[in-house]
Structure to design on (605 residues):
Protein backbone atom coordinates (compact mmCIF):
# COMPACT_ATOMS: atom_id res chain seq x y z
CA UNK A 1 0.00 0.00 0.00
CA UNK A 2 1.45 3.33 -1.01
CA UNK A 3 1.46 6.28 1.42
CA UNK A 4 -1.23 7.94 -0.66
CA UNK A 5 -3.57 4.96 -0.37
CA UNK A 6 -2.90 4.66 3.34
CA UNK A 7 -3.84 8.29 4.03
CA UNK A 8 -6.83 8.08 1.72
CA UNK A 9 -8.09 5.03 3.54
CA UNK A 10 -7.72 6.67 6.95
CA UNK A 11 -9.07 10.11 6.07
CA UNK A 12 -11.41 9.50 3.14
CA UNK A 13 -13.64 12.43 4.16
CA UNK A 14 -10.83 14.95 4.44
CA UNK A 15 -9.26 14.24 1.07
CA UNK A 16 -10.51 16.49 -1.72
CA UNK A 17 -8.63 14.85 -4.57
CA UNK A 18 -5.57 12.78 -5.33
CA UNK A 19 -3.37 12.32 -8.34
CA UNK A 20 -0.14 10.67 -9.33
CA UNK A 21 1.61 12.64 -12.03
CA UNK A 22 5.03 11.39 -13.23
CA UNK A 23 5.27 9.22 -10.14
CA UNK A 24 4.70 12.03 -7.62
CA UNK A 25 1.89 11.07 -5.27
CA UNK A 26 -0.22 14.08 -4.38
CA UNK A 27 -3.06 14.57 -1.95
CA UNK A 28 -5.27 17.63 -1.74
CA UNK A 29 -6.80 17.91 1.72
CA UNK A 30 -9.12 20.21 3.64
CA UNK A 31 -7.22 22.87 5.60
CA UNK A 32 -9.00 21.94 8.83
CA UNK A 33 -7.53 18.42 8.69
CA UNK A 34 -3.94 19.48 8.05
CA UNK A 35 -2.74 19.15 11.62
CA UNK A 36 -4.34 15.74 12.16
CA UNK A 37 -3.06 14.32 8.89
CA UNK A 38 0.43 15.74 9.45
CA UNK A 39 0.54 14.12 12.85
CA UNK A 40 -0.64 10.86 11.33
CA UNK A 41 2.08 11.04 8.67
CA UNK A 42 4.76 11.58 11.24
CA UNK A 43 3.68 9.13 13.89
CA UNK A 44 2.37 6.13 11.95
CA UNK A 45 5.07 3.49 11.82
CA UNK A 46 4.49 2.36 8.24
CA UNK A 47 4.56 5.95 6.96
CA UNK A 48 7.15 7.52 9.28
CA UNK A 49 7.60 10.81 7.45
CA UNK A 50 10.39 12.26 9.55
CA UNK A 51 11.46 14.89 7.02
CA UNK A 52 9.44 17.91 6.05
CA UNK A 53 11.60 18.42 3.01
CA UNK A 54 9.98 21.45 1.52
CA UNK A 55 7.11 23.80 2.15
CA UNK A 56 5.99 26.37 -0.35
CA UNK A 57 2.91 27.91 -1.91
CA UNK A 58 1.56 28.51 -5.39
CA UNK A 59 -0.64 31.40 -6.49
CA UNK A 60 -3.18 30.25 -9.07
CA UNK A 61 -4.58 33.67 -9.89
CA UNK A 62 -5.35 33.74 -13.63
CA UNK A 63 -3.85 30.26 -14.05
CA UNK A 64 -3.08 29.25 -17.65
CA UNK A 65 -4.18 32.64 -18.88
CA UNK A 66 -7.52 32.24 -17.11
CA UNK A 67 -8.44 29.03 -18.92
CA UNK A 68 -8.26 26.93 -15.77
CA UNK A 69 -10.32 28.27 -12.90
CA UNK A 70 -9.37 27.09 -9.43
CA UNK A 71 -11.81 27.34 -6.59
CA UNK A 72 -9.25 28.83 -4.24
CA UNK A 73 -6.49 31.20 -5.16
CA UNK A 74 -3.57 29.71 -3.21
CA UNK A 75 -2.28 26.27 -2.49
CA UNK A 76 0.24 25.54 0.23
CA UNK A 77 2.42 22.62 -0.85
CA UNK A 78 4.20 20.27 1.55
CA UNK A 79 6.81 17.73 0.48
CA UNK A 80 7.39 14.94 2.96
CA UNK A 81 10.11 12.34 2.93
CA UNK A 82 10.62 9.23 5.00
CA UNK A 83 14.19 8.26 5.67
CA UNK A 84 13.30 4.78 6.85
CA UNK A 85 10.96 3.77 4.03
CA UNK A 86 12.48 6.02 1.38
CA UNK A 87 9.18 7.29 0.08
CA UNK A 88 7.81 10.73 -0.62
CA UNK A 89 4.41 12.36 -0.49
CA UNK A 90 3.10 15.74 -1.53
CA UNK A 91 0.25 17.31 0.41
CA UNK A 92 -1.58 20.35 -0.90
CA UNK A 93 -3.88 22.60 1.06
CA UNK A 94 -6.16 25.08 -0.72
CA UNK A 95 -6.19 28.54 0.82
CA UNK A 96 -8.79 31.22 0.33
CA UNK A 97 -7.79 34.68 -0.83
CA UNK A 98 -9.94 36.50 1.73
CA UNK A 99 -8.56 34.83 4.84
CA UNK A 100 -5.24 33.27 3.87
CA UNK A 101 -4.42 31.24 6.94
CA UNK A 102 -3.42 27.65 7.66
CA UNK A 103 -2.19 25.85 10.77
CA UNK A 104 1.50 25.84 11.53
CA UNK A 105 3.50 22.63 11.56
CA UNK A 106 6.38 24.05 13.63
CA UNK A 107 5.50 21.88 16.61
CA UNK A 108 5.87 18.72 14.51
CA UNK A 109 8.87 19.59 12.33
CA UNK A 110 11.34 22.29 13.33
CA UNK A 111 12.12 22.86 9.66
CA UNK A 112 8.65 24.34 9.14
CA UNK A 113 9.72 27.47 11.03
CA UNK A 114 11.71 29.24 8.31
CA UNK A 115 9.71 27.78 5.43
CA UNK A 116 6.50 29.18 6.86
CA UNK A 117 8.14 32.55 7.37
CA UNK A 118 9.17 32.50 3.73
CA UNK A 119 5.65 31.66 2.56
CA UNK A 120 4.29 34.48 4.71
CA UNK A 121 6.90 36.83 3.27
CA UNK A 122 6.33 35.90 -0.35
CA UNK A 123 2.61 35.07 -0.47
CA UNK A 124 1.08 36.69 2.60
CA UNK A 125 -0.33 33.44 3.92
CA UNK A 126 -0.48 33.40 7.71
CA UNK A 127 0.34 30.35 9.79
CA UNK A 128 -1.79 30.06 12.88
CA UNK A 129 0.32 29.34 15.95
CA UNK A 130 3.71 30.12 14.41
CA UNK A 131 6.00 31.46 17.18
CA UNK A 132 7.79 34.12 15.15
CA UNK A 133 5.97 34.89 11.93
CA UNK A 134 7.93 37.74 10.40
CA UNK A 135 9.47 38.41 7.01
CA UNK A 136 12.62 36.48 6.20
CA UNK A 137 14.00 37.39 2.78
CA UNK A 138 12.55 40.87 2.44
CA UNK A 139 12.79 43.70 4.94
CA UNK A 140 10.05 44.66 7.37
CA UNK A 141 9.03 47.85 5.52
CA UNK A 142 8.44 46.01 2.26
CA UNK A 143 4.94 46.57 0.90
CA UNK A 144 3.02 43.61 -0.49
CA UNK A 145 4.06 40.02 -1.13
CA UNK A 146 6.42 39.54 -4.02
CA UNK A 147 5.53 36.10 -5.36
CA UNK A 148 1.82 36.84 -5.67
CA UNK A 149 0.84 36.94 -9.31
CA UNK A 150 -0.63 40.44 -9.01
CA UNK A 151 2.71 41.84 -7.82
CA UNK A 152 4.52 43.09 -10.98
CA UNK A 153 7.98 41.59 -11.31
CA UNK A 154 9.53 44.95 -12.24
CA UNK A 155 7.94 46.99 -9.44
CA UNK A 156 10.39 49.08 -7.42
CA UNK A 157 10.14 50.15 -3.81
CA UNK A 158 12.03 53.00 -2.10
CA UNK A 159 14.52 50.89 -0.18
CA UNK A 160 15.62 48.74 -3.11
CA UNK A 161 16.00 51.14 -6.01
CA UNK A 162 14.77 54.22 -7.80
CA UNK A 163 11.00 54.66 -8.03
CA UNK A 164 9.70 54.86 -11.55
CA UNK B 1 28.76 49.29 45.64
CA UNK B 2 27.03 46.72 43.52
CA UNK B 3 28.01 45.45 40.12
CA UNK B 4 25.45 44.97 37.43
CA UNK B 5 25.85 42.22 34.90
CA UNK B 6 23.97 42.04 31.67
CA UNK B 7 24.52 40.29 28.40
CA UNK B 8 26.09 42.02 25.45
CA UNK B 9 24.67 42.18 21.96
CA UNK B 10 27.19 41.64 19.21
CA UNK B 11 26.40 42.20 15.58
CA UNK B 12 28.30 40.05 13.09
CA UNK B 13 27.83 40.93 9.43
CA UNK B 14 26.24 41.57 6.94
CA UNK B 15 29.73 42.27 5.70
CA UNK B 16 32.38 40.60 7.79
CA UNK B 17 35.70 38.95 6.90
CA UNK B 18 34.74 35.67 8.58
CA UNK B 19 31.40 35.52 6.78
CA UNK B 20 31.68 34.12 3.28
CA UNK B 21 28.49 35.71 2.16
CA UNK B 22 26.22 38.50 3.18
CA UNK B 23 24.42 37.43 6.31
CA UNK B 24 23.84 39.05 9.66
CA UNK B 25 24.05 37.31 13.02
CA UNK B 26 22.90 39.14 16.10
CA UNK B 27 24.45 37.39 19.04
CA UNK B 28 23.67 37.71 22.69
CA UNK B 29 26.86 37.12 24.65
CA UNK B 30 27.54 36.40 28.28
CA UNK B 31 31.25 37.05 28.45
CA UNK B 32 32.47 34.82 25.69
CA UNK B 33 29.58 32.40 25.84
CA UNK B 34 26.81 32.58 23.24
CA UNK B 35 23.40 32.86 24.86
CA UNK B 36 21.32 33.43 21.81
CA UNK B 37 21.66 33.88 18.05
CA UNK B 38 19.31 35.60 15.68
CA UNK B 39 20.05 34.84 12.03
CA UNK B 40 19.01 37.42 9.48
CA UNK B 41 19.14 36.45 5.83
CA UNK B 42 17.92 37.92 2.57
CA UNK B 43 20.73 40.34 1.72
CA UNK B 44 21.36 38.62 -1.59
CA UNK B 45 17.73 38.10 -2.58
CA UNK B 46 17.49 38.54 -6.34
CA UNK B 47 13.97 37.20 -6.91
CA UNK B 48 15.10 34.00 -8.62
CA UNK B 49 11.69 32.36 -8.34
CA UNK B 50 9.84 35.44 -9.57
CA UNK B 51 12.13 35.97 -12.53
CA UNK B 52 11.83 32.34 -13.63
CA UNK B 53 8.08 32.89 -14.01
CA UNK B 54 8.72 35.63 -16.56
CA UNK B 55 10.99 33.73 -18.96
CA UNK B 56 10.86 30.54 -21.02
CA UNK B 57 12.06 27.24 -19.58
CA UNK B 58 15.42 27.34 -21.34
CA UNK B 59 16.04 30.91 -20.22
CA UNK B 60 15.98 29.84 -16.57
CA UNK B 61 19.40 28.18 -16.88
CA UNK B 62 21.45 31.37 -16.49
CA UNK B 63 19.47 32.10 -13.33
CA UNK B 64 20.17 28.65 -11.92
CA UNK B 65 23.91 29.23 -12.43
CA UNK B 66 23.67 31.95 -9.87
CA UNK B 67 22.07 29.87 -7.12
CA UNK B 68 24.99 27.93 -5.75
CA UNK B 69 27.74 29.71 -7.60
CA UNK B 70 30.44 27.36 -6.32
CA UNK B 71 28.95 24.33 -8.04
CA UNK B 72 26.63 25.78 -10.70
CA UNK B 73 26.60 22.63 -12.83
CA UNK B 74 24.61 20.72 -10.24
CA UNK B 75 21.92 23.43 -10.26
CA UNK B 76 21.75 23.20 -14.05
CA UNK B 77 21.38 19.44 -13.89
CA UNK B 78 18.71 19.65 -11.19
CA UNK B 79 16.61 22.14 -13.12
CA UNK B 80 16.93 20.22 -16.39
CA UNK B 81 15.96 16.93 -14.74
CA UNK B 82 12.85 18.50 -13.22
CA UNK B 83 11.68 19.90 -16.55
CA UNK B 84 12.43 16.54 -18.18
CA UNK B 85 10.36 14.82 -15.52
CA UNK B 86 7.55 17.25 -16.25
CA UNK B 87 7.87 16.49 -19.96
CA UNK B 88 8.27 12.77 -19.35
CA UNK B 89 11.34 12.36 -21.57
CA UNK B 90 14.58 10.47 -21.32
CA UNK B 91 17.98 11.63 -22.54
CA UNK B 92 20.78 9.76 -24.38
CA UNK B 93 23.20 7.68 -22.33
CA UNK B 94 26.22 9.76 -23.21
CA UNK B 95 24.53 12.95 -22.01
CA UNK B 96 23.75 11.26 -18.71
CA UNK B 97 27.39 10.35 -18.19
CA UNK B 98 28.54 13.84 -19.15
CA UNK B 99 26.12 15.34 -16.64
CA UNK B 100 27.38 13.05 -13.89
CA UNK B 101 31.03 13.77 -14.69
CA UNK B 102 30.42 17.52 -14.62
CA UNK B 103 28.33 17.31 -11.43
CA UNK B 104 31.02 15.40 -9.61
CA UNK B 105 33.74 17.81 -10.74
CA UNK B 106 31.58 20.60 -9.33
CA UNK B 107 31.02 18.79 -6.08
CA UNK B 108 34.76 18.38 -5.53
CA UNK B 109 35.36 22.06 -6.26
CA UNK B 110 32.61 23.00 -3.82
CA UNK B 111 34.04 20.86 -1.02
CA UNK B 112 37.53 22.18 -1.73
CA UNK B 113 36.27 25.73 -1.33
CA UNK B 114 34.44 24.90 1.86
CA UNK B 115 37.35 23.18 3.58
CA UNK B 116 39.88 25.67 2.24
CA UNK B 117 37.88 28.64 3.52
CA UNK B 118 37.31 27.04 6.91
CA UNK B 119 41.02 26.28 7.25
CA UNK B 120 41.92 29.83 6.29
CA UNK B 121 39.62 31.28 8.90
CA UNK B 122 41.29 29.10 11.49
CA UNK B 123 44.67 30.45 10.46
CA UNK B 124 45.84 27.88 7.91
CA UNK B 125 46.32 30.21 4.99
CA UNK B 126 48.54 27.85 3.00
CA UNK B 127 45.90 25.12 2.96
CA UNK B 128 43.48 27.60 1.48
CA UNK B 129 45.93 28.44 -1.28
CA UNK B 130 46.62 24.77 -2.04
CA UNK B 131 42.94 23.98 -2.19
CA UNK B 132 42.14 26.91 -4.42
CA UNK B 133 44.98 25.73 -6.63
CA UNK B 134 43.28 22.33 -6.87
CA UNK B 135 39.96 24.00 -7.56
CA UNK B 136 41.65 25.85 -10.38
CA UNK B 137 42.60 22.50 -11.98
CA UNK B 138 38.94 21.54 -11.92
CA UNK B 139 37.78 24.91 -13.22
CA UNK B 140 40.12 24.41 -16.16
CA UNK B 141 38.29 21.19 -16.96
CA UNK B 142 34.94 22.91 -16.63
CA UNK B 143 36.14 25.75 -18.81
CA UNK B 144 37.33 23.39 -21.50
CA UNK B 145 33.92 21.79 -21.85
CA UNK B 146 31.52 24.62 -21.10
CA UNK B 147 33.52 27.65 -22.19
CA UNK B 148 33.03 29.40 -18.87
CA UNK B 149 34.27 28.98 -15.34
CA UNK B 150 31.37 30.02 -13.17
CA UNK B 151 28.24 31.05 -15.03
CA UNK B 152 28.33 28.07 -17.30
CA UNK B 153 24.70 27.52 -18.48
CA UNK B 154 25.91 24.23 -19.89
CA UNK B 155 23.01 21.83 -19.46
CA UNK B 156 20.05 21.93 -21.84
CA UNK B 157 16.60 20.46 -21.47
CA UNK B 158 16.97 17.08 -23.13
CA UNK B 159 20.76 16.99 -23.10
CA UNK B 160 23.82 19.15 -22.77
CA UNK B 161 25.26 22.00 -24.80
CA UNK B 162 28.49 20.45 -26.06
CA UNK B 163 30.19 17.10 -26.19
CA UNK B 164 33.42 16.36 -24.35
CA UNK B 165 36.45 17.61 -26.27
CA UNK B 166 39.03 15.32 -27.84
CA UNK B 167 41.64 14.24 -25.34
CA UNK B 168 39.48 15.31 -22.41
CA UNK B 169 39.70 11.91 -20.74
CA UNK B 170 43.49 12.02 -20.44
CA UNK B 171 43.41 15.60 -19.25
CA UNK B 172 40.80 14.72 -16.67
CA UNK B 173 42.83 11.78 -15.32
CA UNK B 174 45.87 14.04 -15.08
CA UNK B 175 43.90 16.66 -13.10
CA UNK B 176 42.38 14.01 -10.85
CA UNK B 177 45.88 12.84 -9.98
CA UNK B 178 46.87 16.44 -9.24
CA UNK B 179 43.83 17.00 -7.05
CA UNK B 180 44.58 13.80 -5.15
CA UNK B 181 48.08 15.09 -4.42
CA UNK B 182 46.62 18.30 -3.00
CA UNK B 183 44.16 16.34 -0.88
CA UNK B 184 46.98 14.28 0.63
CA UNK B 185 48.90 17.48 1.27
CA UNK B 186 45.91 19.16 2.93
CA UNK B 187 45.21 16.06 4.96
CA UNK B 188 48.76 16.08 6.29
CA UNK B 189 48.57 19.76 7.09
CA UNK B 190 45.17 19.72 8.79
CA UNK B 191 44.18 16.38 10.24
CA UNK B 192 47.04 16.16 12.73
CA UNK B 193 47.28 19.88 13.25
CA UNK B 194 46.72 20.61 16.95
CA UNK B 195 45.12 24.02 16.41
CA UNK B 196 42.81 22.92 13.62
CA UNK B 197 41.88 19.68 15.36
CA UNK B 198 41.07 21.29 18.72
CA UNK B 199 39.01 24.03 17.22
CA UNK B 200 36.98 21.65 15.07
CA UNK B 201 36.51 18.87 17.61
CA UNK B 202 33.39 19.03 19.77
CA UNK B 203 32.26 22.35 18.37
CA UNK B 204 29.03 23.04 16.53
CA UNK B 205 27.50 19.74 17.55
CA UNK B 206 24.08 18.82 16.23
CA UNK B 207 22.45 15.50 17.09
CA UNK B 208 20.96 13.10 14.59
CA UNK B 209 17.41 13.81 15.79
CA UNK B 210 17.80 17.59 15.66
CA UNK B 211 19.32 17.45 12.20
CA UNK B 212 16.41 15.39 10.88
CA UNK B 213 13.82 17.60 12.58
CA UNK B 214 15.36 20.64 10.94
CA UNK B 215 15.27 18.96 7.54
CA UNK B 216 19.04 19.12 7.12
CA UNK B 217 20.54 17.03 4.32
CA UNK B 218 23.94 16.54 2.72
CA UNK B 219 27.35 16.43 4.41
CA UNK B 220 25.91 18.23 7.44
CA UNK B 221 23.42 15.44 8.08
CA UNK B 222 25.94 12.71 7.23
CA UNK B 223 28.33 14.24 9.76
CA UNK B 224 25.68 13.47 12.38
CA UNK B 225 25.65 9.81 11.38
CA UNK B 226 22.69 9.54 8.98
CA UNK B 227 23.67 7.94 5.69
CA UNK B 228 21.16 9.82 3.54
CA UNK B 229 22.40 10.67 0.08
CA UNK B 230 19.98 11.32 -2.80
CA UNK B 231 22.39 9.57 -5.15
CA UNK B 232 21.89 6.34 -3.17
CA UNK B 233 18.31 6.77 -1.95
CA UNK B 234 16.73 7.93 -5.22
CA UNK B 235 19.40 7.32 -7.86
CA UNK B 236 19.02 9.59 -10.86
CA UNK B 237 20.93 9.65 -14.18
CA UNK B 238 23.37 6.72 -13.93
CA UNK B 239 24.35 6.86 -10.24
CA UNK B 240 22.95 3.36 -9.72
CA UNK B 241 25.67 2.00 -12.01
CA UNK B 242 28.51 3.56 -10.06
CA UNK B 243 30.26 2.02 -7.13
CA UNK B 244 30.66 4.53 -4.33
CA UNK B 245 30.32 4.79 -0.58
CA UNK B 246 28.48 7.27 1.57
CA UNK B 247 30.83 8.42 4.33
CA UNK B 248 29.20 9.23 7.66
CA UNK B 249 30.38 10.76 10.91
CA UNK B 250 29.43 9.79 14.44
CA UNK B 251 29.13 12.87 16.63
CA UNK B 252 27.97 15.62 14.32
CA UNK B 253 30.69 18.11 15.22
CA UNK B 254 32.72 20.23 12.85
CA UNK B 255 35.51 17.67 12.69
CA UNK B 256 33.11 14.98 11.53
CA UNK B 257 31.82 17.22 8.80
CA UNK B 258 35.40 17.93 7.74
CA UNK B 259 36.13 14.21 7.50
CA UNK B 260 32.89 13.56 5.62
CA UNK B 261 33.74 16.21 3.04
CA UNK B 262 37.30 14.95 2.64
CA UNK B 263 36.05 11.39 2.12
CA UNK B 264 33.33 12.52 -0.27
CA UNK B 265 35.85 14.21 -2.53
CA UNK B 266 37.69 10.93 -2.94
CA UNK B 267 34.39 9.18 -3.72
CA UNK B 268 33.55 11.80 -6.32
CA UNK B 269 36.93 11.39 -8.00
CA UNK B 270 36.34 7.62 -8.08
CA UNK B 271 32.96 8.19 -9.68
CA UNK B 272 34.47 10.32 -12.44
CA UNK B 273 36.98 7.58 -13.19
CA UNK B 274 34.23 4.97 -13.40
CA UNK B 275 32.20 7.19 -15.70
CA UNK B 276 35.05 7.37 -18.17
CA UNK B 277 35.22 3.57 -18.24
CA UNK B 278 31.50 3.21 -18.91
CA UNK B 279 30.66 6.19 -21.12
CA UNK B 280 29.45 5.22 -24.62
CA UNK B 281 31.17 6.71 -27.65
CA UNK B 282 29.97 9.97 -29.10
CA UNK B 283 30.53 11.59 -32.51
CA UNK B 284 28.80 9.50 -35.14
CA UNK B 285 31.31 9.95 -37.94
CA UNK B 286 30.33 7.22 -40.42
CA UNK B 287 26.98 8.72 -41.38
CA UNK B 288 28.45 11.92 -42.79
CA UNK B 289 29.59 11.68 -46.37
CA UNK B 290 29.74 15.33 -47.39
CA UNK B 291 32.43 17.93 -46.89
CA UNK B 292 32.98 20.57 -44.26
CA UNK B 293 31.66 23.97 -45.36
CA UNK B 294 31.40 27.30 -43.52
CA UNK B 295 28.05 28.21 -41.97
CA UNK B 296 27.52 31.37 -44.05
CA UNK B 297 28.13 29.44 -47.25
CA UNK B 298 25.64 26.77 -46.29
CA UNK B 299 22.98 29.37 -45.49
CA UNK B 300 23.59 31.15 -48.83
CA UNK B 301 23.34 27.94 -50.82
CA UNK B 302 20.12 27.00 -49.08
CA UNK B 303 18.63 30.44 -49.71
CA UNK B 304 19.37 30.16 -53.41
CA UNK B 305 17.86 26.72 -53.55
CA UNK B 306 21.12 24.91 -54.32
CA UNK B 307 20.27 22.19 -51.87
CA UNK B 308 21.61 19.22 -53.83
CA UNK B 309 23.60 17.09 -51.43
CA UNK B 310 23.58 19.85 -48.85
CA UNK B 311 22.03 17.59 -46.25
CA UNK B 312 25.12 15.37 -46.42
CA UNK B 313 27.52 18.18 -45.65
CA UNK B 314 28.87 19.15 -42.31
CA UNK B 315 28.85 22.76 -41.19
CA UNK B 316 31.95 24.48 -39.87
CA UNK B 317 30.77 26.38 -36.81
CA UNK B 318 32.06 28.94 -34.41
CA UNK B 319 33.60 27.21 -31.36
CA UNK B 320 30.84 28.59 -29.11
CA UNK B 321 28.32 26.45 -30.99
CA UNK B 322 30.47 23.34 -30.81
CA UNK B 323 28.33 20.29 -30.13
CA UNK B 324 25.30 21.49 -32.05
CA UNK B 325 26.32 19.89 -35.35
CA UNK B 326 24.82 16.68 -36.63
CA UNK B 327 27.95 14.80 -35.74
CA UNK B 328 27.62 15.40 -31.99
CA UNK B 329 24.05 16.48 -31.42
CA UNK B 330 22.52 13.03 -31.69
CA UNK B 331 24.55 11.45 -28.93
CA UNK B 332 24.12 14.28 -26.41
CA UNK B 333 20.60 15.55 -27.08
CA UNK B 334 17.20 13.92 -27.07
CA UNK B 335 15.62 13.29 -30.46
CA UNK B 336 12.30 14.78 -29.33
CA UNK B 337 11.97 17.71 -31.72
CA UNK B 338 9.53 19.58 -29.49
CA UNK B 339 12.23 19.78 -26.82
CA UNK B 340 15.72 19.94 -28.31
CA UNK B 341 16.93 22.24 -31.07
CA UNK B 342 17.66 20.50 -34.39
CA UNK B 343 21.32 20.11 -35.47
CA UNK B 344 22.66 23.27 -37.08
CA UNK B 345 22.94 21.63 -40.54
CA UNK B 346 19.18 21.22 -40.63
CA UNK B 347 18.52 24.76 -39.43
CA UNK B 348 20.82 26.21 -42.08
CA UNK B 349 19.94 24.02 -45.03
CA UNK B 350 16.19 23.40 -45.02
CA UNK B 351 12.97 25.13 -44.11
CA UNK B 352 11.70 22.37 -41.82
CA UNK B 353 14.78 22.62 -39.63
CA UNK B 354 14.54 26.39 -39.58
CA UNK B 355 10.89 26.31 -38.58
CA UNK B 356 11.66 23.75 -35.89
CA UNK B 357 14.34 26.06 -34.52
CA UNK B 358 12.03 29.07 -34.45
CA UNK B 359 9.19 27.14 -32.91
CA UNK B 360 11.47 26.41 -29.99
CA UNK B 361 12.96 29.85 -29.45
CA UNK B 362 9.97 32.15 -30.05
CA UNK B 363 7.94 33.52 -27.17
CA UNK B 364 4.59 31.81 -26.93
CA UNK B 365 5.92 28.66 -28.62
CA UNK B 366 8.94 26.99 -27.05
CA UNK B 367 8.95 23.95 -24.80
CA UNK B 368 5.47 23.45 -23.47
CA UNK B 369 4.97 20.71 -20.88
CA UNK B 370 1.42 19.61 -20.13
CA UNK B 371 -0.40 21.06 -17.11
CA UNK B 372 1.07 19.46 -14.04
CA UNK B 373 3.67 19.65 -11.35
CA UNK B 374 6.87 17.82 -10.51
CA UNK B 375 9.45 17.76 -7.76
CA UNK B 376 12.88 16.35 -8.46
CA UNK B 377 15.67 16.13 -5.89
CA UNK B 378 19.35 15.89 -6.77
CA UNK B 379 22.30 15.73 -4.43
CA UNK B 380 23.82 19.19 -4.38
CA UNK B 381 27.15 19.87 -2.72
CA UNK B 382 25.36 20.99 0.44
CA UNK B 383 22.52 18.50 0.43
CA UNK B 384 19.25 17.81 -1.30
CA UNK B 385 18.67 20.36 -4.01
CA UNK B 386 15.10 20.05 -5.17
CA UNK B 387 13.19 21.88 -7.85
CA UNK B 388 9.41 22.02 -7.75
CA UNK B 389 7.93 23.26 -11.00
CA UNK B 390 4.29 23.87 -11.80
CA UNK B 391 3.40 24.07 -15.48
CA UNK B 392 0.23 25.60 -16.87
CA UNK B 393 0.81 24.28 -20.35
CA UNK B 394 2.51 27.41 -21.66
CA UNK B 395 6.15 28.03 -22.54
CA UNK B 396 6.87 29.79 -19.25
CA UNK B 397 6.85 27.97 -15.92
CA UNK B 398 3.94 28.97 -13.71
CA UNK B 399 5.96 28.49 -10.56
CA UNK B 400 9.56 27.46 -9.92
CA UNK B 401 10.48 26.65 -6.38
CA UNK B 402 13.99 25.72 -5.27
CA UNK B 403 14.60 23.79 -2.13
CA UNK B 404 18.00 25.23 -1.26
CA UNK B 405 20.11 22.83 0.81
CA UNK B 406 21.69 25.43 3.08
CA UNK B 407 18.38 27.06 4.04
CA UNK B 408 17.47 24.48 6.71
CA UNK B 409 21.08 24.40 7.91
CA UNK B 410 21.05 28.14 8.50
CA UNK B 411 17.74 27.78 10.34
CA UNK B 412 19.42 25.27 12.64
CA UNK B 413 22.52 27.40 13.20
CA UNK B 414 21.35 28.72 16.62
CA UNK B 415 20.98 25.09 17.70
CA UNK B 416 24.68 24.45 16.94
CA UNK B 417 25.92 27.66 18.50
CA UNK B 418 23.98 28.41 21.66
CA UNK B 419 26.00 27.44 24.72
CA UNK B 420 29.34 27.40 22.97
CA UNK B 421 32.10 29.99 22.86
CA UNK B 422 32.15 32.97 20.58
CA UNK B 423 35.25 31.64 18.77
CA UNK B 424 33.36 28.47 17.81
CA UNK B 425 31.24 30.53 15.47
CA UNK B 426 34.03 30.62 12.90
CA UNK B 427 34.57 26.86 12.36
CA UNK B 428 30.84 26.13 12.68
CA UNK B 429 29.88 28.73 10.14
CA UNK B 430 32.66 27.45 7.90
CA UNK B 431 31.33 23.89 7.98
CA UNK B 432 27.81 25.06 7.16
CA UNK B 433 29.25 26.21 3.83
CA UNK B 434 26.61 28.85 3.45
CA UNK B 435 26.17 30.00 -0.13
CA UNK B 436 24.19 33.22 -0.07
CA UNK B 437 23.16 32.75 -3.69
CA UNK B 438 21.07 29.68 -3.00
CA UNK B 439 20.08 30.70 0.52
CA UNK B 440 18.51 34.01 -0.49
CA UNK B 441 17.78 33.19 -4.14
Amino acid sequence: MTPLQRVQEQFSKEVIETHTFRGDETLMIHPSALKVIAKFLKETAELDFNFLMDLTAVDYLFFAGGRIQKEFRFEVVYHFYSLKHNHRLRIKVPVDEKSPEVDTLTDLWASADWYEREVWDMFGIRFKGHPNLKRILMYEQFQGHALRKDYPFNKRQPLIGPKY
Amino acid sequence: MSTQTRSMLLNVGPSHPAMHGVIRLIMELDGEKIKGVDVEIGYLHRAFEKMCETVMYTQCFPYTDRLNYVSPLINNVGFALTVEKLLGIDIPERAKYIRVIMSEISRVSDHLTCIGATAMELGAMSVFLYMIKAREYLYELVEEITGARLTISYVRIGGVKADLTAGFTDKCFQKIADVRKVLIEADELLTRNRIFFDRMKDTGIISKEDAIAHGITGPFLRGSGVAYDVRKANPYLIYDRLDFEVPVGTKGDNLDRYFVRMAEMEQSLRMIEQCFQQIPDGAIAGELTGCLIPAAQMVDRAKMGQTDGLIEDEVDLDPTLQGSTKKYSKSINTDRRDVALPPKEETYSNIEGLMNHFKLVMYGHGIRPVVGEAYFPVEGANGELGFYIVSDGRDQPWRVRVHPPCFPIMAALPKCLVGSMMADLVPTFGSVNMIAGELDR
Remarks:
- The mean pLDDT of chain B is 87.
- Residues 93-121 of chain B form the longest helix (29 residues).
